Amino acid sequence: MLVSLNSEVLGELSDFLSQLKSEDFADCSPVLRTSSIGQHVRHILELYDCMLSQYESGIVCYDDRKRDKRLETDVAFALAKVKEIQSNLKLEDKEIILKMAVETDFETIQSSYNRELCYNLEHCIHHQALIKIACNQLDYISLPSSFGVAKSTIDYVKSLESSAN
Questions:
Q1: Fewer Cβ close by (within 10 Å): the C or N end of the chain?
Q2: Measured between alpha carbons, how far is residue 146 from residues 53, 106, 110, 158 in Å?
Q3: What is the pLDDT of residues 23-81, one digit of tens each?
Q4: Residue 159: which CATH number?
Q5: 85 lies in which domain range?
Q6: Does the CA dihedral 98-116-42-56 come out positive or negative?
Q7: Looking at residue 142, what is its pLDDT?
Q8: Count of CB atoms within 10 A of residue 152's CB?
Q9: How many Å apart are CA 158 and CA 152, to the nearest integer?
Q10: Which of 13, 122, 155, 115 is nearest to 71 (CA)?
């Protein structure tokens, strides 16, 4: 279930990227002011990439991401990374140690692969919500109503609609 939810949200991101003009991807957004849509996409993808590439070691440190500029400037490269991540999500749940930089040291937290899938899902949705705001001025973009909206919110709205009928 978690793999399919993550794959679905990444699929929405992929569909979005396939519509986006390169300049709107890479240039600073007038709405976001200090960042570009591409920087938000890079951030989403690099956290997924950290989780997957560090899975075998059993220690995941999101602070150790590559910050690959091509992921924020090259739409085709970002699209390829989305597809690569989607194809590698199905891994066995196992214990993971989450390593976080805190001031000048590191803290470790017990976690699991499935917990990190949950984190990346919510993180992706959060950044998609920001991207959606940046796209309000791009009249050529068509986004599904679910883009950037938590699944629990979608379910809640559906329950309100069905109870109103």
A1: C
A2: 28, 36, 31, 12
A3: 999 998 888 888 999 999 999 999 999 999 999 999 999 998 989 999 999 999 999 99
A4: 1.20.120
A5: 2-164
A6: positive
A7: 94
A8: 9
A9: 10
A10: 13
